[in-house]
Amino acid sequence: MPYTSRHKEETRRRIVASARRLFNKRGFSEVSIDEIMGGIGLTRGGFYNHFATKDELFAEALRDMLDNPPKQTFDGVEIDFRAPPDVLARRIIGSYLSRSHFDDVEGGCPMIALPSDVARGGEPVKRAYRQVLDAIIGVFQASQENRSADARASAVTMATLCIGGMVLARAVDDDRFAAEIRDVAMNRALEAGGWDAGAPSVAAE
Asked: pLDDT tens across 52-107, in order?
């Protein structure tokens, strides 16, 4: 009996979710199609019913963040995309640079784990990464329309501090230094948006 279109769509979503977790954890080049499919109890042969190449899957795993943004609450900061733009932007900054997001490598934002792989990737991968980055910047820019003379520059600054700050924090081997990086990036991102920066939390880590 042939599979229904709904079953095929669900299988595709499961493949993307498996790939996103593995890519976040180990990077694009270190993850095989067999591992991605094995993670959901399927074999390699089924992969090609949904994707032509691993690059195509990589691009979709990046875009999946736009269609299915993380539902986790990091450090008690809940993200509600229906919130007013300035509230949403501040919550994204607090959540993005939180300790729990730092710890959640598999479930975190692929923008942090994959930039080096994207830089070596083809045009579809780079296009997908740019689309996600544009969407993040767009959220921040909406919060700045009535607060900054150059809303776009402020938004790019905030996005750069969030993503770049977490990349550096995860790259160092000292927990206190990583916390310092996150604190500084968070405070500067809030300042870029015209909001008061919170007190550093390094001492409490």
From this structure: 999 999 889 888 877 776 655 556 666 777 788 999 999 999 999 999 999 988 88
Together in a domain, 183 and 119: yes
The domain of 45 spans 5-52
Is residue 125, in this structure, part of any structural domain at all? Answer: yes
**Closest by alpha carbon to 134, among 203, 182, 77, 65?**
65
Contact in structure between 128 and 151 (CB atoms under 8 Å)? no
pTM to 2 decimal places: 0.82
Any idea how long the chain is?
A: 205
**In a 3-state reduction of DSSP, which class is residue 16?**
helix
DSSP 131-199: HHHHHHHHHHHHTTTTT-TTHHHHHHHHHHHHHHHHHHHHH-S-HHHHHHHHHHHHHHHHHHTT-PPPP
Phi, psi dihedrals of residue 112, rounded to the nearest 5° = -80, -45
pLDDT, one tens digit per residue, over 140-178 is 999 998 877 899 999 999 999 999 999 999 999 999 999
Residue 197's domain is classified under what CATH number?
A: 1.10.357.10
Tell me, yes or no, whether 44 and 89 share the same domain: no
Question: Do 130 and 191 fall into the same domain?
Answer: yes
Q: Which of 16, 43, 37, 12 is nearest to 3 (CA)?
A: 12
